[in-house]
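Lesson 9: reading folded outputs for more than one chain in a single document. The general rule is that every protein is listed as its sequence immediately followed by its structure tokens, and records are never interleaved. Here is the first one.
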Amino acid sequence: MHDETLSLRISKAESRALRDRARREGISRASLVRRALRAYGVTPEAQAEKSGYDVIKHLIGKSNGGPKDLSTNPEHLDDYGR
């Protein structure tokens, strides 16, 4: 990603409000401005993190074969751990 610097003039009240909000949220002023740009629709949303389900959902239900009672029949555990 290539970053650019943007300089702009804002009032003292806007600067104070930006600083205070950034402090409350525990982020930098720049991060707060970037978040506002995304919320305003100026920049695209960041890709959401994938859950474990999202990663494997294409595999669920694809198994052909194997015992249907694998998780409930204790006979399948006879040699488990040996």
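And here is the second record, again sequence then tokens.
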Amino acid sequence: MNEEQIQMLDGKNKILLFRRMKDQGASAAKLIFQTEHTFEYERELDAIVTKDGTVVKVGELETEVDIEAIAAKNDPVGSMLQSAMINGERLEIWEVNVDEDLADDGKYPAVYAQGYLSSWAPTASAEDESEISSTFIVDLKPQFGFATLTAEQQEEVQYAFKDTVADDEDESNGDVEDENTED
């Protein structure tokens, strides 16, 4: 393989979206100011020594998602997640890789799971921003596929380039040619 085919994945391109199971009529939403998350897959393996050699007994898959974010004022998703934790409500979670190079027909690679938050820990440091730490425990096995992002979800990920003129003056919708392109 040549180097053009192999590229690093940027962690900043992987975002988490959430929705309460009872709200499936609404789109999933992004927790604001996510800083880090870890999708952790774990399986217990027991080595059993026999007279013929060691055999391995494979346990069930356990999956959890550790979530870190800066707390935001008036974030409806943060409030919903805290409420879901306190009330033991079932949630849906998506880890969506918004890297445009990986998009397929407008959809992005994603991991989908259902489960519950087992913790919700807001911090309040005197010198730093207030942070939220949480752990999502996955029920059954996560599913892999492609997710569609609405225009609103895409705006939450990153704002698009805007031109300096008023929107009604610019018919090109912000498209600017790169002057550094060689002919």
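What the second record shows: Strands lie at 14-20, 29-30, 34-50, 53-70, 91-97, 107-122, 131-148.
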